[in-house]
Design brief:
single chain
């Protein structure tokens, strides 16, 4: 089992409890380290180190790990790209109110808009240089698929190794 001590940066001691960080606009973000707690006049103040890097990491997590974008995640991505609802709407070729409804949770993003928002984030200066690397890998994979002239009726053979299934190349006869 992984313990909390495995999640701190060299030279930084782990906090006793993760810091809940809803100030980013998301309810499910917690920080193990990278911040200082200070009490001034009986009030606790938090200073977060490398805030831009943290926001980039959160954005990349959202676009790479979340299956469906939640309303607050769509808002977070838009804000990280420094876009208004109207600017994002124009970029995605939808009405301003459509973006507002997505962010309020009144309407779900359709698949095309979801993909376009994720791609826009990867192209934005906010996600660089990681965003470019991810897009380059995706484009390379698409190019490999395009260049493959495989018979669509060819057999797909799978074998289980341990707990995972993997496609295997059938042995030549």
């Amino acid at each position: 089992m992984t313990s909390r001590k495995h999640f701190f940066t060299k030279g930084e001691a782990p906090e006793s409890e993760p810091l809940h960080y809803p100030q980013c606009g998301l309810d499910n973000v917690f920080l193990l380290n990278g911040f200082d707690r200070e009490t001034v006049d009986g009030e606790e103040h938090i200073t977060i180190h490398g805030l831009d890097g943290l926001w980039k990491a959160i954005g990349l997590h959202i676009i790479l790990r979340q299956k469906t974008l939640a309303p607050q995640e769509a808002r977070f991505l838009r804000r990280q790209m420094d876009l208004t609802q109207a600017e994002l709407a124009r970029m995605l070729r939808v009405a301003d109110q459509t973006v507002a409804r997505w962010e309020k949770g009144d309407t779900a993003l359709n698949g095309t808009a979801d993909f376009a928002l994720r791609t826009a984030f990867l192209l934005s200066p906010t996600s660089q240089p990681e965003g470019k690397k991810i897009l380059d890998e995706l484009l390379q994979h698409i190019q490999e698929l395009t260049d493959t002239d495989e018979d669509p009726s060819a057999r797909a053979v799978f074998a289980r190794k341990g707990r995972q299934w993997k496609q295997v190349r059938p042995r030549a006869a």
